[in-house]
Amino acid sequence: MSIYDIEVKTIRGAAKSLDEYKGNVMLIVNTASKCGFAPQYKGLQRLHEQYSEQGLVVLGFPSNQFANQELEDESAIEQHCEINHGVTFPLHGIVDVRGQEAHPLFRHLTKAAPGFLGSKAIKWNFTKFLVDRSGRVVRRFSPTVTPEKIEAHIRKLL
């Protein structure tokens, strides 16, 4: 299965195929509004603003699987991210990113780019996956790696 075969839901509930992003570099992030890493939203937004015209798409996927650090209402998530962090990149519906109910996107990402010591499980919010223009998952970044530290990797793919 290709990443482009996966369907997701927008933050407003509309079904969407990742096929829409074919030919773009994607930075896919599991997010949480109340997480200590939430200031990274600003860095993600800066990447979006700086590189979207060159083909970068930042995609946020809220998850409430880590210490209940996400708001439970998707419209509240959208408002919070826009007001507090200036987010204009695409946000999606709340998903599970690990466990039996993990969304197919995150099963695909973690299989293609295992974490530390080969672990497939996502350990915390703001784990990031970089996908090249052909849909290949090229790198996984831990939550402690800031968007600024990913920028050079993104530029190589653009």
Features:
158 residues, GPX_CS, Glutaredoxin, globular, single chain, 4 helices
Task: Describe the secondary-structure layout.
Layout lengths: L6 E3 L5 E3 L7 E7 L8 H12 L4 E7 L11 H12 L18 H9 L15 E4 L5 E5 L5 H11 L1
Parallel strand pairs: 3-4
Antiparallel strand pairs: 1-2, 3-5, 5-6
Question: Overview of this structure, please?
Answer:
One of its GO terms (biological process) is cellular response to oxidative stress. Belongs to the glutathione peroxidase family. It is a single chain. With 158 residues, the chain is of the alpha+beta class. The protein has one domain (3-157): 3-Layer(aba) Sandwich (Glutaredoxin), CATH 3.40.30. 28% of the residues lie in helices and 18% in strands. The protein is built from four helices and six strands. It has a four-stranded mixed beta sheet with strand order 4-3-5-6, with helices on both faces. A two-stranded antiparallel ribbon has the order 1-2. Strand 1 (7-9) and strand 2 (15-17) form a beta hairpin. The chain is globular. The protein starts with 6 loop residues before the first strand and ends with a helix.
Number of helices: 4
Helix proportion: 25-40%
The CATH superfamily turns out to be Glutaredoxin
SS elements, strand count: 6
Q: Main beta sheet, described? A: 4 strands, mixed
Kindly estimate the percentage of residues that lie in beta strands according to DSSP: 15-25%
As for the number of domains, it is 1
What is the straight-line distance between the termini? 24 Å
Low-confidence stretches are none
> Mind telling me the CATH class?
Alpha Beta
Shape: globular
